[in-house]
Amino acid sequence: QVRLAESGGGLVQAGGSLRLSCASSGRSFSMFGMGWFRQAPGNEREFVAAISRGGQSTSYADSVKGRFTISRVNHANTLYLQMNNLKPEDTAVYFCAAKGGIVTSTVISDRERYEYWGQGTQVTVSS
Asked: Among 12, 48, 102, 122, which is least packed by CB within 10 angstroms?
């Protein structure tokens, strides 16, 4: 079992930055591929970014490439999402997710493959 808890959301003006954190507890964090997803009202939950178990491979949605950076610190059991140059369309609840049983270099963008989810943190970007 893995428990995930997001933090760092808030209200920011367009062009601003936020850093989201996802603290993991339970099974060994380094055994899990991790991802960030977001869901705006009335929309499906969509992929934002993913990172492999060791952090050497990453993947991003086209809408956030060049603005967001996913990273992880395995010895601290923490996942991060640095979000720069935020836009109003980035407004959503952001979720972190974990997937076990994968090889070291794999990154996963398919939300249906993730096993564990946090409760989410709200990000609101004003224009």
From this structure: 122
What is the average pLDDT across 93-106? 92
- Average pLDDT over the chain reads 96
Q: How far apart are CA 87 and CA 96, in angstroms?
A: 20
Taking CA atoms, 54 is separated from 13, 90, 109, in Å, by 33, 27, 16
Report which residue type is found at 65. Answer: K
Residue spans of beta strands (DSSP E) within 1-127: 2-7, 10-13, 18-26, 33-39, 46-51, 58-60, 68-73, 78-83, 92-99, 116-117, 121-126
Closest CA to 45 of 100, 95, 11, 98: 95
pLDDT of residue 105: 87
Q: Which two tokens stand for residue 2?
A: 């893995």
Length of the chain: 127
Distance between CA atoms of residues 120 and 28, nearest Å: 21
Cα angle 126, 23, 4 (rounded to 5 degrees) comes to 90
Alpha carbon distance 39, 45 (integer Å): 4
Structure token digits, residue 30: 């380094």
